[in-house]
Amino acid sequence: METFVFVAIILAGLFGWFATTRMKPARYRKKTVLTGRERDLYFRLCQSLPECHVCPQVAVSALIEPAGMGKMRQRALGALGGKRVGYAVFGQDMDLLAVVELAHRSRPTRLERAREACFASAGIRTLRFQAKRLPSEDKIRASIFDRRAARSSSRLPLDAEGELEFRKSPWRNTVNAHI
To answer: In a 3-state reduction of DSSP, which class is residue 88?
Structure first.
């Protein structure tokens, strides 16, 4: 009899807990878009490029779309989904001049290089600035505008049937252990 009462109390408690947690509405909190060095770079970009529009945290799917049809396009769309770039720099007529990323590492990762290759195939330059040492306003301006003329003459044709292929590099043992 005591075990029956004990199990009934436990089950009633679990049922009550499930009923009350299921009825609660979801709670939300405010989220900051830019923090620390990201905010510093945003204001530096705005000051060095007053005639441009700088948009932080832009979805990659709003900037590029895969060419082609069928399964290849669907796979490429899935790879773009949910990804964001640090900053998109637009000219006065809202043409995309460059994508700017704030790098916290000395070298880009394999996924970052793959994303840069996608932007390059669409004819969009990706600029990467180090978070530890932000560039001066003059360097930002020069990197956006000085190479723009060279970029428009050297655009690669977009191959609608070609697909970017990314291979995993073989794992290397970096530990120098002799057993």
So the answer is: strand
| pLDDT tens, residue by residue, 122-177 | 888 999 998 888 888 889 888 888 755 444 434 444 443 444 444 455 555 555 55
Tokens 């979801």 belong to residue = 26
Give the fold, CATH level 3, of 37-152.
Trna Endonuclease; Chain: A, domain 1 (3.40.1350)
Question: Number of helices and strands (H, E) in the chain?
Answer: 6, 4
Give the β-pairing of 125-130 and 96-103.
parallel
Q: What is the pTM of this model?
A: 0.64
Angstrom distance (rounded) from CA 43 to CA 32: 15
- Counting Cα atoms < 13 Å in the Cβ hemisphere of 165 gives 3
pLDDT in tens, 7-16: 999 999 988 8
Which residue type does 111 have? L
